[in-house]
């Protein structure tokens, strides 16, 4: 705080300096196998060629695998995950994520499907051609499996999910959470040949 006096008039000036927030990063891989990790901001991470591992951190990230067999992991925000060509594994995590597979047989989940916990978030999963594995848990999710013999795992969360299995012989299996649940009567299933409850 500075005090300036002009002919009996006192003026007080207060100057404050703030540090600008760090900008989101644009992180590009190489033509080889890369391991790329984002920042706490909303980053853009592109694996390019090779079998890459992409990991978003905090922030609504955009992660693109590219050609090759890629592992793409979001985090707690609303992320966009794109697999590209090759057999990819995409896992959104908590938050309302958008996942898009490529022309190969991909695995797309909105959380840790092996635990089948009730992950929040309204997610969009869009697979391409190929025999894909898809998993959705909590939230009002939309799933478009595409052509191929696809396998989808989900839970009875009492919310309306829309699941379009697409062409092929597809299966939808409902799992219990904490010993409760069955086939969710609120879900809208289109073109799903086999629907059942996990034993």
Word description of this protein:
The chain has strands spanning 2-6, 9-13, 26-28, 35-37, 44-46, 53-55, 62-64, 71-73, 80-82, 89-91, 98-100, 107-109, 124-126, 133-135, 142-144, 151-155, 162-164, 171-175, 188-190, 194-197. By secondary structure, it is mainly beta. The protein has one domain (25-197). The model is unreliable at 1-21 (pLDDT under 50).
Residue stretches low in confidence (pLDDT < 50, at least 5 long) are 1-21
Query: Roughly what fraction of the amino acids lie in strands?
Result: 25-35%
Mean pLDDT: 84
Oligomeric state, counting identical vs distinct chains: single chain
Helical residue percent band: under 10%
What structural class do helix, strand and pairing data support? Answer: mainly beta
What form results from the Cα inertia axes?
globular
Radius of gyration: 23 Å
Number of domains: 1
Strand and helix order: EEEEEEEEEEEEEEEEEEEE
Our measurement of the CA-to-CA distance between the termini, rounded to an integer number of angstroms, reads 71 Å
For the biggest β-sheet, the strand order reads 3-5-7-9-11-13-15-17-19
| Sheet with the most strands, sense and barrel status | 9 strands, parallel
Number of beta strands: 20
Total count of helical runs of at least 4 residues? 0
Q: Briefly, what is this?
A:
By secondary structure, the protein is an all-beta fold. 0% of the residues lie in helices and 35% in strands.
């Amino acid at each position: 705080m500075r005090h300036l006096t002009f002919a009996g008039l006192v003026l007080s000036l207060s100057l404050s300096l703030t540090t600008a927030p760090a900008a989101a990063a644009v992180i590009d891989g190489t033509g080889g196998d890369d391991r790329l990790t984002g920042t706490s901001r909303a980053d853009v991470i592109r694996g390019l060629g090779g079998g890459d591992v992409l990991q978003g951190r905090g922030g609504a990230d955009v992660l693109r695998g590219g050609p090759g067999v890629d592992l793409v992991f979001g985090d707690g925000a609303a992320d966009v995950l794109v697999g590209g060509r090759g057999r990819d594994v995409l896992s959104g995590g908590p938050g309302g994520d958008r996942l898009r597979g490529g022309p190969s047989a991909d695995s797309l989940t909105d959380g840790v499907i092996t635990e089948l916990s009730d992950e929040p978030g309204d997610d969009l999963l869009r697979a391409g051609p190929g025999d894909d594995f898809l998993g959705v848990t909590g939230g009002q999710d939309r799933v478009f499996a595409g052509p191929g013999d696809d396998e989808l795992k989900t839970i009875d969360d009492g919310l309306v999910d829309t699941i379009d299995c697409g062409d092929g012989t597809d299966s939808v299996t409902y799992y219990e959470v904490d010993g409760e649940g069955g086939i969710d009567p609120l879900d809208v299933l289109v073109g799903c040949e086999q629907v059942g409850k996990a034993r």
